[in-house]
Every structure is written in C-alpha cells, then in structure tokens.
Description:
This protein is α/β, with parallel strands linked by helices. The chain has 13 helices and nine strands. The chain has a single domain, classed as Alpha/Beta hydrolase fold, catalytic domain (Rossmann fold, 3-Layer(aba) Sandwich), CATH 3.40.50.1820. The longest helix has 21 residues, at about 160-180.
Amino acid sequence: MKTKRGDDVVHFVTVNGLKMAYLDQGSGPIVLLLHGFPDIASTWEKQIACLTKNGYRAVAPFLRGYAPTEVPTGAFFDKATLVEDIAALIRTISPNAPIDMVGQDWGAIIGYSVCAAYPELLKRAVLMAVPHPMIVAQNLLVPKHVHRSFHWWFFQMEKFPEEAILANDMAFIDYLWQYWTVAGFEDQAHIRLIKDTLKQPGVLTATLDYYRAMFDASKADPALSQTREKMNGVIAVPTLALCGAEDLRAELMMQQEPYFSGEYAFELIPQSGHFLHREQPTLVNHAILDWLKQ
C-alpha cells in the first residue's frame, strides 16, 4: 500500500503489529535511515537523493507513533519495542540479506541496540549525534550533560510538556533546533513539516513516551526481557560514528570505541551541531558513502 504526502510517496507495511509508513526510493543495496526527535523521515531528503544517485535503495521509516505511521493506543514505546519494530522492518524489506543502516538521535539510540541485538541483519552502520548507551549512562548526571539533555528530564512530567510544546505555534520545537544547531542555520520549511506531524492526534504524547519509558520500568514491555539482554552486548557490526564538531556530545562519542569489537571509526563533522545531516549534508553524505563502500 502507498499514498502521497506532499511530494513524497509513502509506503505502508505492518511490522511487529504496527502499521508503519516509510519513504522508499531507488534500487540496489538497501540503506535504512532512522530519524530522531523532533524530526521525521523526510529529514533524510539530501541523503536519499545522494544514495539513490549512487546506486542504493533508500528506505526511511516514520518511527512508531510518528504519523503517518500508526499511533497505537495503550502500546509500549520502550527501546526494546522500538528495536523490535526495526528488526521486523528489516526482515520484511530484505528477507534474504543483511542491509546497511544509518541513524541520528533516536535513530542512533535504536541503531546501537539493533546492532547489538541483531547483528545478522546488518552489514554496516552509521550512527550520528548520540553516544553509545553505556557512555550515556556513565555521564547521565554530569551537570553540563544534564543541561544539554534537559528535555529528557522535562518530558518525564505528564501533560505539561505537551502543553509547553504546543504553545505559541510550537516555539519549543524552534528552540530545540536553534539550541542544537550552529548559529545562523535555518531550516524553517522542514521544521514546519515536523510541527504539522507532531500536532496530529496522539503523535506528540507518543514521541514523548520514548523518553518516559527510559526512566520508568513500568512503561517497558515485560515480554521483551530477552531483547533487552541482547541489546547490552558489545557491537560487532562495522560502525562509523559521526558527530557535529559543535555538539557537546562529541566529547562523549570520543570515548565509546571500547564498546565495539568490530571495525569502528569516529569522525567529527565541522561547522555542525546535532542535526549534522541537515547542517552539512555534503560532508555527511561523503562520509556515509565512503563507509558503505568499504
């Protein structure tokens, strides 16, 4: 099944009991592109264009709860559930061969765990802007990183974060993009699409539930204890880590190599912050292509 969303053709598939929407362009080896927060699948437009031009098939899903993907009621949004969504999607779009994966922000958080839990599904990975979860845990209470990731804590409240984000034409979303990118960067047309997505029924609460499930064990699917155990393993999938040189998280990503047993590299992307794939798309595209071609 497929439909139109602006200029994009959106495809649908049911995976892990979820009706998931995804962008799908090109032909050739598959590269799966996972977005973060506050963001949507079309964030990868420059990478999709580059990958398809270079002989790849680019698949970019809207993650659980991000319309037009289903917004399930009474569902789980813990990391293990998100990992099972992506593992099921990979098995569906490439049942007979592993694929390449690229992730940023929550896409990277999910990506680290897919690499650890299901290495057989992946050839190579590029993970951006967020450190390995063990590094995050070690620095969770360091003041400057609490300040950098204040939203993790703010979103633990019920209802008030939704009200704050929706106020004044979602000025909170504008603030996050301004705070996390280099001075002078503008991306208003894309941010408008993000706001339009988050305003759809149930979407905003679903996206914030990702964060609430990080610290509340009652929000984790009890049936996925085995997945959670596998997620904690050392990563053997060949992985390139990228971070904007102006992102505070770069200093944490520089420490994460011990958690990789396979081929690993780390690169800083100059003149960029958290949304490096949009701030410096040419440099990021070059890094992705070089890594996937090795």
